[in-house]
Specification:
The chain is an alpha+beta fold. Helices cover about 25% and strands about 30% of the residues.
């Protein structure tokens, strides 16, 4: 009997979710949206038709048409798009919980998630037609991938670029009744999401000041490799910062042939006693600690996600870190096989599950400045997202800044901004004021000055620049305005 049970368990783990003979593993994605305050709020299902309410959207299906509504107010949601499938699939509900509902049909499977994401997986070659019902202010497009945003939110349509392949039959934007029509091959999954999937967390945003630091390189007398900031410096940092990110420089063991740390990993802490001291002091001072990792670099070197999640799990279990700083996910770098938006979404969902609702995920979008670089249903699992590196802009009103750097009303996470090339007439003060208008937050670097060997010691800065002090003044004013409105 025990042998039969174990065999059955292994089959379930290998094949995925199978209930009553209905395999919906192709639309099942690991993670838990409820940890970020997003969930399946209510459901109705009858004879193949369904109505599902999530925290930020409504999905209505009947007679081959899926209607997608968006809005955090469940009584005043607006229709974004009507999505039509071939053969009018007759769905069977296979699994239902607060995070997701999975449906099976002979032609098509669908998974709907509490973060207002829908995963569609056809089993036969067929058409999928999307008819719009709102005119976006921002229309990001790369091939058949669409990012459509206005002042109320919006939606994304992302066919998986690296899977079975798809053809664009017709895409016409620039109007309320925009159209996007696709010919999908069997196995070609599509991710569609409405956003924002959750309200903006004002209280948390006022405790989201991020600082970045690192370790030493072991140069000079009395500087062991992997030495970190002193307890005195850490306690000083805690007066202004809530999240401290430890970069890979001087922190992880040297692994690359040039004698430097590799952002792709492996992520092995160079000086464990020093890091444990750093963690104890930071936690005692009220700061959360996140450590560096890069799925982008890891996947480029390894051509897969293999071992990436497990390395971070080891760091979490070994040191009780609060979270991670992800320096890039798997996005296109010229090879369609590198792009994996559903895989990115799953990875961030899994990390949120690993670190819990009180954990920290800071995501840096590297230098992606393309029209669909932002994926709001991924961003929303993060505490803060850093965009803009190397992306040139002429003013703070450029569309990339307003609709991809800004997160308020889109993913409702906290926006960080690393400004790219811009005219000299745009000052640090201008950038700081624009960031506060976007309800974003400013990060700061707390780097150590390298000593000149063989003498000298590392000294970590505790001084704040004029621009950061100006930011703190604006943030305090912003907080007072919010509290005054809340108390009325």
């Amino acid at each position: 009997m025990r042998k039969v049970f174990l065999t059955t368990l292994i089959v379930i783990l290998v094949t995925g979710i199978v209930h009553g003979g209905y395999d919906v593993n192709d639309v099942f994605v690991k993670g838990d949206s409820t940890l970020m305050g997003m969930k399946i709020e209510s459901t109705y299902f009858d004879k193949g038709a369904f109505l599902i309410e999530t925290t930020g959207a409504r999905f209505e299906y009947t007679n081959g048409q899926l209607k997608l509504y968006q809005g955090l107010d469940s009584k005043n949601r607006r229709l974004l798009s009507t999505i039509t499938f071939d053969n009018e699939p007759d769905f069977v509900k296979v699994e239902s919980n607060e995070d997701h509902i999975l449906f099976w049909s002979k032609d098509l499977n669908i998974g709907i998630y509490g973060d207002s994401t829908c995963i569609i997986s056809p089993k036969t070659n067929q058409q999928m037609n999307c008819l719009g019902n709102f005119k976006p202010d921002y229309e990001g497009r790369y091939k058949g991938e669409l990012l459509l945003i206005d002042d109320k939110g919006g939606m994304e349509i992302y066919p998986q670029r690296y899977e079975a392949g798809y053809k664009i039959k017709k895409i016409k934007l620039g109007k309320q009744n925009w159209t996007a029509e696709y010919e999908l091959n069997a196995g070609e999954r599509v991710m569609i999401a409405a956003f924002p999937g959750r309200p903006f967390d004002w209280e948390k945003s006022f405790t989201s000041n991020v600082a970045v630091t690192g370790g030493s390189y072991g140069l000079g007398v009395g500087n062991p490799y992997g030495q970190m900031a002193s307890d005195w410096a850490i306690k000083r940092w805690a007066t202004n910062f809530h999240i401290i990110t430890v970069f890979y420089n001087g922190f992880y063991k040297l692994t690359d042939i040039n004698g430097e740390q590799d952002p792709a990993g492996p992520y092995i802490v160079a000086n464990e006693p020093e890091f444990r001291r750093f963690l104890r002091t930071a936690h005692a001072a009220g700061m959360k600690v996140s450590v560096y990792c890069s799925l982008y670099s890891h996947a480029r070197r390894n051509r897969s996600n293999a071992n990436f999640y497990s390395q971070i799990s080891v760091l979490k279990n070994k040191f009780n870190i609060d979270g991670i700083y992800i320096d890039g996910l798997r996005f296109d770098n010229g090879s369609s096989k590198h792009d994996d938006k559903i895989g990115n979404w799953e990875m961030v969902r899994r990390f949120r599950q690993l670190f819990g609702s009180d954990g920290v995920i800071v995501y840096h979008g590297t230098s992606l400045g393309g029209p669909i670089a932002t994926v709001p249903n991924i961003d929303t699992y993060c505490d803060a997202t850093l965009n803009g590196e190397s992306v040139a802009f002429q003013s703070a009103n450029d569309s990339y800044i307003q609709y991809q750097v800004r997160k308020y009303g889109i993913s409702n996470t906290v926006a960080l901004w690393k400004p790219g090339p811009h005219p000299d007439s745009i000052t640090h003060k201008d950038i700081t004021e624009a960031l506060i208008r976007m309800n974003g937050r400013k990060r700061w670097h707390l780097s150590a000055a390298r000593p000149k060997p063989p003498q000298g010691r590392y000294i970590w800065s505790v001084r704040l620049g004029t621009e950061y002090r100006y930011y703190l003044d604006l943030l305090e004013h912003n907080k007072r305005v919010y509290l005054n409105k809340s108390n009325r």
